[in-house]
Amino acid sequence: MTTARLPLFPLNSVLFPGLVLPLNIFEERYRAMMRELLKTPEDEPRRFAVVTIRDGHEVAPSAPGIPDPTAVPERGPAAGFGTDPLRSFHKVGCVADAATIRERTDGTFEVLATGTTRTRLLSVDASGPFLTAELEPVPEAPGEEAGALAEGVLRAFRQYQKRLAGARERSLATGAELPDEPGVVSYLVAAAMMLDTPTRQRLLQAPDTASRLRDELKLLRAETAIIRNLPSLPAADLTRGPTHLN
User: Fold this and answer.
1) Integer Cα distance of 65 and 165 in angstroms
2) pTM of whole model > 0.85?
3) Tens of pLDDT, residues 166-187
């Protein structure tokens, strides 16, 4: 299987194919990555790989630590990820295509990227100004009964949306049409549900579309039942900003 080497962007969240990823770039290692990507001609994809952090920090400490004020901040491309960065990341991630990279006057960047294809992390190189990784594509088979499962997931997702809107005392926008292609459905639902990061990662690395859809159907039914019996939901989205810290 063909491998590729791409810049590596670890995050505390999961990126799915087809989903948009806004980024606010301020750490020097990722500024260097964006400067390198800007060297790619505009008519060619500016690709990097996004992997989910298993053990580590999305943003490296940049000031003396607490409770030890004498602690030296970590520097370098692997800061926050230990001596063996490969062990700090989940192995299945997603290639991202940066459609927009805009440098601000202070040297930080505003980036808008889109997930394209799944990829498997083989090795990590920390010898340069930013992490790079050797990756191989992770093909996705439809699996058995993917079409029928997608229909069931869409019905369950609409019910989940209604329950969620009611629990939050919000109106539900019904004008938006949902896709019907099984793979797109599986990724959209995985990204739209209120799930923890390990569950999202499990869905990303499902062996095929049908397996992901079966898992989502169980999750949707369970979550809808929970919401139905709760008078309200915590404002979880209030703790989430519109962009990642990096």
Assistant:
1) 41
2) no
3) 655 454 444 456 787 999 999 9
